[in-house]
Amino acid sequence: MYLFFFLANSVAQPQPQPPPPQPTSHITILGSVYCDVCYRNTFSKHSYFLSGVDVHVQCRLKASSTRTTEEISFSVNRTTDRYGTYKVDIPSLDGVDCTHVATIHSFCQASLIATSVSGCNVPSTRSNSTEITVKSKQNNIMCTYTLGALSYKPFTPNVSLCGNIER
Known about the structure:
It comes from Sesamum latifolium. The protein is mostly beta strands and about 170 residues long. It contains 2 helices and 10 strands; from the N terminus they run H-E-E-E-E-E-E-E-E-E-E-H. It has a single domain, classed as Immunoglobulin-like. Strand 8 (about 125-135) and strand 9 form a beta hairpin.
């Protein structure tokens, strides 16, 4: 009889639920570098992507917690591939949920370091994060920060290819 009351009482008592698991974000940062042959400040029909360019990427990510205002900051150097793109993969950050943090608090920016292309080696731009794409599979969150394209220019524009260019 005592065993019955003990079992019935222990089943009837609500057991505290463990806290839901903190989301973990897999973050990818993507960008590209091109040669702005005609000084248009945009990719044109004469522009081409640059491989072998060194890029500095700097990010500040805010942890999503009601109890803390932690930030994770990092900077890395990357080199563009043969398609002129660079990529930074951050496999897992506990407590950083890139879907719920305002972009003003979390951002990435990139700047040019050096290029080995002698015909297009005058730096022309700096880039901040402009778009965030979010994909979520329950607690496995994937976010992509797509940075605007960076560019170099030749020392002098190719007038025969581009026509007269006002600087």
